[in-house]
Amino acid sequence: MNRRIISFCSSCVLIVSLFFAAVFPLSSARAFPMSEEEQEILEKSLSIVEIDREIARIEHKQQETGRSIRKLSGELAEKEGQMRISQERAGVRLRAYYMGEREDLLTALLSVNSWKDFFTVLDYYQLIMERDRDVLASYRNDLTKLNKSRKQLTALSNELEQMKDNLLKQRERVMELQRSVDGKLGASADPEHLRAMIEELTTYWENVGLHEVRRYFSALASAMMDFQDFLKDHQDSLVSENGGYVLVIREEDLNAFLHGKNKLLSNMAFIFEEGKIVATGSREGLNLRVEGHYTVENEPQNAIVFHVDRLVFNGLELPDTTRMELEKGFDLGFYPQQIVPFVKADEAVIQKGTLTVKLKLSL
Fold first, then answer.
1. How far is CA 154 from CA 18, 76, 161, 316, in A?
2. Which three-class secondary structure state does DSSP give residue 286?
3. Cis ω for the linkage preceding 319 (within 30 of 0)
4. How far apart are CA 97 and CA 92, in angstroms?
């Protein structure tokens, strides 16, 4: 019985292994160098997959924005109806002031013959004035809400138009890339081999590659959220200079910090070169290279923001749509004021081996 169980389990392991080898062969298939033709075709095919995904994202966003516009338009029409009522009420109050009705009340207040009557009329007068103030305040609030809704509607409409333009451009890019790939396949001596490589790449990317790339970016973003821990361990990195501070981050220190934050990042190496930072990692057949740079930005808050300039997966460069999605989706920057509240980042310079951030006092 035990032998049968062991034999059955061994068979299951073999079947699963064969399945993954069939579905995800690219992890080992890319171990040998690709020709320039294969490189170009696979990069363009991967770009088609990613831009198609961006098109789907834009179309989904368009639908959401369209629903928001329709909902906001309905709310705006309702607010405009409420506004007309408030406007009429406010008009009645204002006309009363200009036509002297409130002066008549004031005259009545001053012409009473007893203190009892005086306070009775005064209470009545104050009630009227409070009601007037409430009506006018309601009018102002409704007007503020109406203008805010109009601005939101205009912003959403502009955003929708931009999305439509972007969608057309992305569709044109896909068509151009597809024509190029089709042309290369038609001219190839072995088009079936190239088609098989494209299919393998697409399957591996959609089922494993994209998920793994996002895991790396998520781990990096999580580590950077704890960047204040870096200074606790490297207090000598922050020094006072010329009425401010200078933060010098050494390459080896940053690597040690990130490796300690997440086991996944222990497979990555971070290198500071002139004007850029390069991160490379390799794990279980997946090779990733990220190149980028830092800029100092003040909106919505002062920050050292990381920009993804180049993203290479298993030797294939991913398109700008993927870089932008990852850059927006995962914050790899850091915020000096979370470390030292009274300073602002003024400049970030990447040189060989170091990242230098100049901080100025912001009191």
1. 56, 12, 11, 41
2. strand
3. no
4. 9
Distances (CA, A) of 141 to 74, 75, 78, 133, 147: 19, 15, 14, 12, 10
Question: How are strands ordered across the β-sheet holding 276-283?
Answer: 268-273, 276-283, 286-297, 303-313, 316-317
290 neighbors 311 (Cβ within 8 angstroms): yes
pTM: 0.69
Q: 163-192: buried (b, 16+ CB within 10 Å) or exposed (e) per residue?
A: beebbeebeebbeebeeebeebbeeeeeee
Burial class, 202, CB count within 10 angstroms (exposed 0-12 / middle 13-18 / buried 19+): middle
Query: Taking the mean position of all CA atoms in its chain, how far away is CA 238?
Result: 30
Q: Cβ(285)–Cβ(201) under 8 Å?
A: no
Tokens for 64, please give them: 């959401």
Counting Cα atoms < 13 Å in the Cβ hemisphere of 342 gives 4
End-to-end CA distance of the chain: 78
Q: How far apart (Å, rounded) are the C-alpha atoms in residues 170 and 166?
A: 6
pLDDT digits (tens, 9 = 90+) for 232-279: 888 888 888 877 889 899 999 999 999 999 988 998 999 999 999 999
Give 56's strand partners.
none
